[in-house]
User: Fold these one by one.
Assistant:
Number 1:
Amino acid sequence: MIEITLILDNKNSKPMYIQLANHIKQEILCGRIKPNEKLPSKRNLANHLGLSINTIQSAYEQLSAEGYVESKPRKGLFVTTVNHDLKINQNQSCEKVDSKTKLIQEKPMIDFNSGKVDLQLFPYSIWRKLTLQSLYEDEGKLFYMGNPQGEVNLREQISAHLYASRGVRCSPEQIVIGAGIQVLLGLLCLIIGKEHTYALENPGFHRTRITLQDLGVQTVPISLDEDGINITHLKKTDANVVYVTPSHQFPNGMIMPISRRMELLKWAEEKNRYIIEDDYDGEYRYKGKPIPSLQGLDKNEKVVYLGTFSKSLIPSIRISYIVLPSSLLNRYEEHFTIYKQTVSRLHQDTLFRFINDGHWDSHLNKMRTLYRKKHETLTSAIKNLLGEKVKVIGQKSGLHIVLEVKNNMNENELISKAASKGVKVYPLSIYYQDGLQSKVHRILLGFGGLTETEIHIGIRLLKVAWEL
Amino acid sequence: MIEITLILDNKNSKPMYIQLANHIKQEILCGRIKPNEKLPSKRNLANHLGLSINTIQSAYEQLSAEGYVESKPRKGLFVTTVNHDLKINQNQSCEKVDSKTKLIQEKPMIDFNSGKVDLQLFPYSIWRKLTLQSLYEDEGKLFYMGNPQGEVNLREQISAHLYASRGVRCSPEQIVIGAGIQVLLGLLCLIIGKEHTYALENPGFHRTRITLQDLGVQTVPISLDEDGINITHLKKTDANVVYVTPSHQFPNGMIMPISRRMELLKWAEEKNRYIIEDDYDGEYRYKGKPIPSLQGLDKNEKVVYLGTFSKSLIPSIRISYIVLPSSLLNRYEEHFTIYKQTVSRLHQDTLFRFINDGHWDSHLNKMRTLYRKKHETLTSAIKNLLGEKVKVIGQKSGLHIVLEVKNNMNENELISKAASKGVKVYPLSIYYQDGLQSKVHRILLGFGGLTETEIHIGIRLLKVAWEL
């Protein structure tokens, strides 16, 4: 068994499990713990270090999440064959340390993850107060099963908010709440029908594609032009359902102009055609005038609108929703109310109170200002430091941009060179149905979870990494 | 527009919306509001009565849940064609009342709903305290997206609990948490494969059948004998996956004996065969010795165990889980971690604390005692009052029984006669794949949500209703 021995620092501002995970990570990076070696069992290591099993677990989970170790069912946790690009601090900190007396400091990784949001400004105390109100309310009432569509009062708030901020016209009866877009897409696909062909933006949101394909649905990739999905291409296919992200195309970031929206709605006028409009981060727009949602422009009840509180509120409470046009609402009511609501009724009630008391609007305003500043920092750092050697794509809204890098490196090289300087950037190829890795000289930069300083440092490091 | 006018009583112990719903219900039952009439819009009625829109909503939702009204999309709320059997209080309370000065008192309905649980003994204050701890913990950490399988510390607690109380042997790595059995069954069906034929108990749990069929999976109904699923019948089909409820067959209630369990495990030894063991209320057993779960008896990694906190803790927080054998776990890890966790991370953390601090065990013990008393009250009331004219089926465990009534009434008659005396009992035919309504002289009685007094009154009323 590998021996892991270190003295953890109680006064260190980092939690114990992070200190432990960092120590093990360092041992792996320095080669003192070898690939394919088995880590001690949680119980053994807990006894050995005098720590709780939970601390060990959390450390192991962290290592696993970062890809340093992987679990083999019923066998245990094993060190992965570490990508050597990850060994970023080898020179600095792999001196022969005595881990009993010295704690390893690791350079922070600047992570341009597009799924991260900033929770620094989240009004925790208000949320706690409202959570308690939900728990005290009519003791126990909210503990019994609720409406399969979700709580009426929350749906009323969502409906009012959608009208005011996104131009979506719907009654609360048309809204179905669910625990995330994947759950709701699964349901929606059953309501619309699995026998149809679903057209998807290419590149597009990979979770949608995989969810639909896993359900056994035929999908067809549709190319994009500068205005979004290519209608000429769409018309050539036998698809009668199309999934689009018009407010901020994922991942390319263009905003679909009104003319293209009207063309798409025109396409959908045919019998049995539907548009699924995913407005995953439409709250955040930095340039240009607001364009009404497809749902708001639709006169023929052809658009299903999808929204989420993950980007704009709290990712981990898992509250999303779909707005059904009347023909699909009828089908839902006839058959699908047998599917129980998937979101906790208590969270629904707390969110209702949060919106009802005006906190949601003021939080959104604060976040818009914050993200606008981060966005400006990012785009001006790119302009000043990387200049003509890169092209920024899709910068008018949302929490990420796409960067085309003109240095002849392919996607893999761009990512691994960045990692060698401690910067994590993300591939674009996974969003293509056919995974066009080599052709793409582009990567994805999310900025929601980084501070302005981190964004600055990140871009400076990328300049060096990519030799620009 | 219908005119609805009444004076609500602030000092009445019933909430306003209940008073309003009761009033409208009475007006419908007395025929003063006619079938197919449209109710006023929420806004209009709120203005008219000087109440909040929320109160009107809640009242309308209540009426809708009870089947008195139904919403037609974009048209409004309409009075349904009320079953005349429901007009239970017509004689007593349909005198020409002046609703402006008198509030209608309605007789309580005794509802033998099998989905109800008793939350009287739920330790609300502890749950509140732990919820606050989760919200304060490492500010914000729990607000970011967590592990797709669910929190490690909660999975550790579940794994320990399952071993101690249900004989399930698993590591936390094998557990996937999800927002309800329907979500998890959908995922499981993708992991196992939709190309297989799934055998289902007949009668059996209708939500499982519908979930699988909606996914496009071939299902085959398998008859039951007194020990549970009929293995001879199962062997004659081409099914290679079987879904069973061995701890307490739903709805018939038999506990599968060890010999049948071994036979079923033997059947599953063939390549690509799996057993899905749904232990939905296995915590509650009143007679006989505990029998280990199929998962615990399985030597060949052929059993997927399904569990839920809905029956034993709080229905509305939506926490269930599956335990995957290693071959399926591999498939899950290869492809399905792209599906995000559907349960709120905060609730997962609170539940972890609740179990970790021992509250779960003590709550379960209290609930076992409580349900045992209710169960005794029910079975002895049936024995004393209904005697030889009925047969009780499946009374050794769980929160419901099946009653066979020997008075030549069919299911519909049994239900409507009971309703005419203010007692709600439930059909068994919906649990048959082929809906054998007329042949069945049986109904379902759930007792979890009723007090002992209500159970007594309910059985007395059934004696009269069914002329026993």
Note: The first helix of chain A runs from residue 16 to 29.
Number 2:
Amino acid sequence: MNTPELANSVRLTGDAVEILDRRVYPFQRIWVRCTTSDEVAQAIRDMVTQSSGPLFATTAAMVLAARSVRHRPRDLALADLRAAGDRLVATRPTNNHIRDAVHAILAELRDLGEGDLAEEVERAARAHDEAYRTRSAALGRHAADLLPDGATVLTHCWADYYLIATVQATQEQGKHLEFVCTETRPYLQGARLTAATLVEMGYEPTLITDGMVAAALADGVADVALVAADRVTLDGHVINKVGTLGVALAANFAGRPFYALVQRPDPQAPTPEDVVIEHRDPDEVLHVLGRRTAADGVTGHYPAFDTTPPDLVTRIVTEKGAFRPENVKEAI
Amino acid sequence: MNTPELANSVRLTGDAVEILDRRVYPFQRIWVRCTTSDEVAQAIRDMVTQSSGPLFATTAAMVLAARSVRHRPRDLALADLRAAGDRLVATRPTNNHIRDAVHAILAELRDLGEGDLAEEVERAARAHDEAYRTRSAALGRHAADLLPDGATVLTHCWADYYLIATVQATQEQGKHLEFVCTETRPYLQGARLTAATLVEMGYEPTLITDGMVAAALADGVADVALVAADRVTLDGHVINKVGTLGVALAANFAGRPFYALVQRPDPQAPTPEDVVIEHRDPDEVLHVLGRRTAADGVTGHYPAFDTTPPDLVTRIVTEKGAFRPENVKEAI
């Protein structure tokens, strides 16, 4: 089975965290080297990595932070570690991977004695990474169960581990799929990350612009819509890359299923009002890969995520199975 | 009142038709010079001009064709002219401007005597151009009546004369509008043509990517959706730039009006089955302004238009007024 390059895009070395730069992938393979947790935070803020990348970057950053304070008194070292964690959590507000990773590592330390802090954090970080991969694999098997052999799956943005796990599970089940990917402006995650990874995994994906989603689903060019979710609320709202609401509306209009993938809903987010929608640099809308594409005198507007209400969602696929959105809190 | 540059983007000279190249506008002002009607047809096929540009390019091309055969016997000259017209009509199948312009000019000649063919065609061409502008102005006044003072109007693609006329009419009515424009990939008509023209007309448009339409309408960033139609069928379907269906679905979801502008429905198209949806070069989806934006191993898919059913359309605004889609055939 192919393990695509983006499945291992964060490396912890003896003195640094190296992050594959998703801003230029797959056109260039550049690894951004960070020697402090604050450099990792800056890299996350600058979108060097995204989707599940920040989770692995965060656990690795916590190891860097622990190494830098390992010789301080434990209470002071733990305070430094909490502060480093807070700065990582502050980088991006909508997805809860970073918050949960920091909390999981800090919680692990509370139950431990006075061993070497860096080693303890590294163990906790590895365990958190591994658990994330294991839960993604479970999610992928549940998602694969919903996809019929021969389906053409429309993706939006880049569903990262969830997509990789789903595709691997369909391959284990002997199902043949085809893929239609939106390019996902402004950052082109679909054209670059999803498409490149599906090619690595043996497919020949078809690319459409973000405006072609409704036509593709209505005309039968694709027959299932499958997206990740950055956050799912306990009342079944799906918060994901901007454009997802349009995909859900189109699937609903065309009578096609709309599936959203998330390991579990966020117990800290009962409703969409509990989720901060990140707005990013509006200039990104005015450029493509750094080149100006808009007329002078124009201002950009860049909400990074949108909110899809439960009645447009066919199933939310979690590590515990596929749920109707109104029942998704059972997945906690 | 400002007359923006794109309102006069085709020039007939003594020996050529000069067409403002919309593929690079507004970053470059290049006029493509065509000395035969077939060169004009090629320019239309290559998207040097689009929207209402092909209409003016076609009438001018018919003048060029008439000049080249003016000294032949009239029946042979007319046959040549018809053939030139057929080649122009064949360039782009979805919009009916080209077909109607060719037919109008040829019909005019049938009623004339044995005068100078080139002068007759030039008169008929001018009359057709002028009538198009007059009908667009009427349409614009009807559209302006629907737009409340203070509205923020979401545009998709480039509605050309219809948009210019609508904006001018709102200015005459003393209404203040704001605009949110989709960039409209792959060709970026919104980011380049619509945005540049609105700036010329005194506005500061906000640009969004095509995937942000549903969020913009749901979040109140825009409160009216306004698009042109390349074709409206007698049963009220709106065929327009791909992405329009998604705009209509989003407006419907958000409870916002969706208005489509067309001088009149096509009497030759009772239903959408009577309209050919053009597919363009899939490579355009894999590039932005000529630069590769997609991973290797990917295939593009590029339906240039999509079809919005009547139940998603609030009003179709014609030269004769605004109609509910089920009544649009009254506008003929």
Note: Chain A has a mean pLDDT of 96.
